[in-house]
Specification:
Blueprint (H helix, E strand, L loop, with lengths): L10 H9 L2 E5 L4 E3 L7 E7 L1 E8 L2 E9 L5 E2 L1 H6 L6 E4 L3 E7 H10 L1 H36 L1
Antiparallel strand pairs: 1-8, 2-7, 3-6, 3-8, 4-5, 4-7
Length: 149
Amino acid sequence: MQSRLFANLSREEQEKFLALCTKERIPKGSLIKKEGERVRKAFFLIEGEVAVKKSSSQGEMEVATIKGGEDVVFSFTCMIDGGKSLTTIVAKSECSLLSFDKKVWLKFCEQNPKSGIVLMQNALELMALFLRNSDEKIIQMYQTLEEVL
């Protein structure tokens, strides 16, 4: 599997982690996670297509479509902190997912300390990238709002 989460890990180290994950087949139309609910696991989208939906003042709207094989890991933050989901994810086609919870994450890191440090570093870098992208979007929205007002 190609994932930035596994950057600088050997194939063997990556396979050790993936062996701890749970494989799930999700039928088309199935709800994977719901906005506002506590989610305690993260998912790799291996194959298939999902819709990312967000509530708005005009109801729920689809904000993105994501295809498997695009280095997709979702609900990672929820897995780490057990917080509420910010989006709803629905299977647009039959999907294959690998899921893992915090216990799996920490078990791997404890049993494989060197690989665990690399995995944690990769996760931090991905979260930092997400934050930077979010900041950019906020700045763009603010600039658009200034232009409108």
